[in-house]
Design brief:
The structure is a homodimer. Chain A folds into three domains: about 80 residues, Arc Repressor Mutant, subunit A (Orthogonal Bundle); about 100 residues, D-Maltodextrin-Binding Protein, domain 2, CATH 3.40.190.10; about 100 residues, D-Maltodextrin-Binding Protein, domain 2, CATH 3.40.190. The first copy, chain A, is about 40% helix and about 20% strand. Chain A contains eleven helices and ten strands. In chain A, strands 2-1-3-10-4 form a five-stranded mixed beta sheet, with helices on both faces. In chain A, α5 links the parallel β1 and β2. In chain A, α1 crosses α4 and α2 packs across α3. The interface between A and B is large, with 43 and 43 residues. The structure holds a DNA duplex.
Chain lengths: ~325, ~325
DNA sequence: GGGCAGGTTGCGGCAAACGCAATGCAGTTC
DNA sequence: GAACTGCATTGCGTTTGCCGCAACCTGCCC
């Protein structure tokens, strides 16, 4: 039982004749007649009174038309919801980020985005590690991910990349705060807390350590950046973090962020990622724009090559 | 947006892969893939996450599947109602009859029929004249009609015909009641009431009058047979009616029905009619059987030629 | 990095739907 | 009541869309 045949019967019943229905539908009368007959065969019961000039539905015919009308209503409701999705009036956006991205800039972005698209639901999933973010992205559990220096996972496409050097971060009153720049070796003399080895920041640091031939010994590690910042705030510890993670405190003159002279740490970057080959729905696509602008505003080079947009036709 | 494509997507989503869906549906994998792709093109939005091993629906895909499930429920509800109609568990039967048919035999028939098919609704429309019955039948306002000696309307098919002579009907104590048979001329000496000229009974009588060369003058006419019977019951009047209309009173020995020697009146018949070429739905078809049996029980010749039964294939 | 399992794409075949035209049929007009 | 008009039905050749097969591509697992 198809929509098609039903539409013919529906139109014929509404307009009172097969001819009118055929004209209205832009098909030949014979098609209308045949489709109705076929429908009767399939259902095994008469739907219209045959052998008359005008169409008159049987009891079953009336029932079927009512059924079809309900079906139409259902379809219209769905079309409306679909149009909402396409018009960005509704939709879900799933983001995965490292803890380091949580802060005023991201909050501002979300606030502005929500003001512009009040119907869009956004879930920001904070992951304990970049690997977790990558996994979520690769398995389509989230649309987009924000990671610090992502790995070279073949399933991942980097949509935008912003240089985000790792800096030494300390309380404004800390002895190291006076320096314009620091070498890795300069850091050994103060008490250090660091992210856990599972975090990308730490892995990056390990690379730099081996290049520079310096080995740093943290007194405390944690996967909670909030905890690290708390330790830094006390003045007892300093740590290594991307500026992004402490932008608010630096702006407040509460913290100082001192660049470290090390190519490995200077070339570090924040990356906006999605699964390779994934076509994003309208809402996440719009979020992608916003995030790209957000990263651009961070003032570094953006690599936008190879963004896959959602289109009806295949790329 | 067809049912077909949706079923493919539905099955693929349910089973988790296109191959499983293809096996389950008995089609090639390529068909499933193509139908889903086409659906995405039509809707202009992605429904599944492409470039993965297993099927995963997008937000829109989930929505669409939910929509399809609702559609399925709707279709099942309709199928159930359709099956009720075909299984005679529900349905409407519209009958048109002349007043003369109202009485115990018809009531018994309806009671028995209703006991056998409690779900079937029956409307018995009493018409003031046979012409009215014929019109209702011809215009598909009723399924079947019971008339006394119907006209030769070309739109009408006679499904069954039972001889039902017109008799002189009088109170058991009436002078005419003693006769075994009467001639038209014998009737002139008593007070007569008759149906109105619009009724078929009366038209039949007119034919007989002209053949026999006798003219009867009724003192009272009415289109209400109940009124005529009431007049007869008083003993003052006698009338002319088919036996059927007074079968109960005759059985009770309250009335007498005396045959009239006149070929025109003897050949009179009760006819079960429907519109020419009409295919009756299941319920009225069953009623047709019952009515035919009812007429058969009246003990006269039945003409069953040319009954059109409801079948999927054309006759 | 080779094999496996699953999805996509190109191609030829076939069935369903279509349009056209002839026919049948009901109701109307003269 | 006969021709006519408007509608539905049917037969036939054409077109369209779906299908299966097979080759190919792509993740994913060993």
């Amino acid at each position: 039982m198809q929509d098609l045949n039903l539409r013919y019967l529906y139109e014929a019943a509404k307009l009172g004749s097969m001819r009118a229905a055929a004209d209205s539908l832009g098909v030949a009368v014979s098609s209308v007649s045949r489709q109705i007959s076929q429908l009767e065969s399939e259902l095994g019961i008469g739907l219209i009174e045959h052998g008359r000039r005008n169409i008159k539905l049987t009891e079953t015919g009336v029932l079927l038309i009512e059924h079809f009308s309900e079906q139409l209503r259902l379809n219209e409701a769905f079309d409306a919801r679909l149009s909402d999705i396409k018009g960005l009036r509704t939709g879900r956006i799933h983001l995965a980020i490292g803890e380091g991205f949580i802060g005023q800039p991201l909050s501002n972005l979300l606030i502005r985005f929500n003001a512009k698209h009040p119907g869009l639901f956004i879930d920001v999933h904070m992951s304990a590690s970049s690997n977790e973010v990558v996994r979520l992205v690769a398995e389509d559990d989230v649309h987009l991910g924000l990671v610090f220096q992502s790995s070279e996972d073949p399933r991942i496409r980097v949509l935008a990349s912003v240089r985000q050097p790792l800096c030494a971060v300390m309380n404004a009153g800390h002895p190291l705060a006076a320096h314009k720049s620091l070498k890795l070796a300069d850091l050994k003399s103060h008490r250090l807390c660091l992210p856990e080895p599972s975090l990308r920041t730490r892995q990056l640091l390990r690379t730099a350590e081996s290049i520079e031939g310096v080995s740093l010994q943290p007194s405390v590690t944690s996967n909670s950046i909030t905890l690290l910042k708390s330790l830094v705030q006390s003045g007892e510890f300093f740590t290594l973090l991307p500026v992004l993670a402490v932008s608010k405190e630096v702006e407040n003159r509460q913290f100082a962020a001192v660049p470290i002279v090390s190519s490995a740490l200077q070339d570090a970057a924040v990356q906006l990622i999605c699964r390779l080959g994934r076509r994003l729905p309208p809402a996440p696509l719009r979020m992608l724009d916003a995030l790209t602008a957000y990263l651009e505003a961070s003032g570094a080079t953006i690599d936008l090559s190879g963004i896959v947009k959602e289109t009806p036709t295949k790329p």
